[in-house]
Amino acid sequence: MAIEYKAPHKLSQDEVVTGLASAIKPKRDVIDQNCEGFVLALKALAAAVVTQLFSYIIGKGRKHGYVCTGQIFVFLHIPDNSTTVFYHICVPNLDVLDDNENRLHRITVAQIFAFVLQVVRTAPPPQSWYDAAATFKI
């Protein structure tokens, strides 16, 4: 598993939530785009962060990783089709509500623990996954 820590002043909660609000297709949304406008700029920022962690994950020969700013966590999973990245955003200040009895599974420690359990039980990628990942120019 790869972990990337970012300072919260460099990557804010609002930037992450807005930038990852919808699917990002780098060729369509980021590469060779002028990224004018708030949402496009945040998509480009989010894509840069995800791409950096994607590179670390691939370099380690793993399929999981997460980005942490202290305010937000973005959990990443690279499936067998290593050209795709799935993500889940965890914002502890918004996810955990005091009036909800079943809130403990949403706290940060529980989210990370569940993610680590998922990582541990995931079978190693097949050789074809490594071969495909080795051809990426990241």
In short:
With 138 residues, the chain is an alpha+beta fold. It has helices at 13-19, 26-29, 38-60, 92-95, 108-121, 127-134, and strands spanning 2-5, 64-68, 73-77, 86-90. Helix 1 (13-19) crosses helix 3 (38-60).
Secondary structure blueprint with pairings:
Blueprint: E1 2-5, H1 13-19, H2 26-29, H3 38-60, E2 64-68, E3 73-77, E4 86-90, H4 92-95, H5 108-121, H6 127-134
Helix pairs in contact: 1-3
Task: Please give a handful of descriptors for the protein shown.
single chain; 138 residues; alpha+beta; 43% helix; 14% strand; flat
**Radius of gyration in whole Å, from Cα?**
16 Å
SSE ordering:
EHHHEEEHHH
3D shape: flat
Uncertain regions: pLDDT < 50 for 5+ in a row? none
Average pLDDT figure: 84
Strand ordering within the main sheet: 1-2-3-4
Q: What structural category characterises the helix and strand content?
A: alpha+beta
What's the β-strand tally? 4
Largest sheet: 4 strands, mixed
Q: Helical proportion?
A: 40-55%
Distance between the termini: 18 Å
Number of domains: 1
| Number of H/I helices | 6
How would you portray this structure in words?
Helix content is 43%, strand content 14%. The mean pLDDT is 84. It has one domain. It has helices spanning 13-19, 26-29, 38-60, 92-95, 108-121, 127-134; strands at 2-5, 64-68, 73-77, 86-90. A four-stranded mixed beta sheet has the order 1-2-3-4, with helices on both faces. It is an alpha+beta fold and 138 residues long. A hairpin with a 4-residue loop joins strand 2 (64-68) and strand 3 (73-77).
